Amino acid sequence: MAVRAYAARQGWGLDQVVVDTRFGPRGQSVKHVRLTGELDPTQVERLPNVAGRCPVRRLITGDVTVTTVPTGVTAVRRISAPAPLPE
Description:
Blueprint: H1 2-10, E1 13-23, E2 28-38, H2 41-52, H3 55-60, E3 65-74
Parallel strand pairs: 2-3
Antiparallel strand pairs: 1-2
């Protein structure tokens, strides 16, 4: 939520955020963040940092180490709606 809200406030072309978190054996957590949309490299670098300041993350990371891994950025091609059928 924090990433979407930040990108919206900045007017960035973020279409989707997918987060996959895996928990390791010694209390370690690895979080993969997939950002989809028309983003430049600076924006891609910035958004995982914003995710690190998310209030939910701060709530759950008492003694847990979280590693964030950006896993890719793709542009989404928008397809226009089909023409209406003739009557």
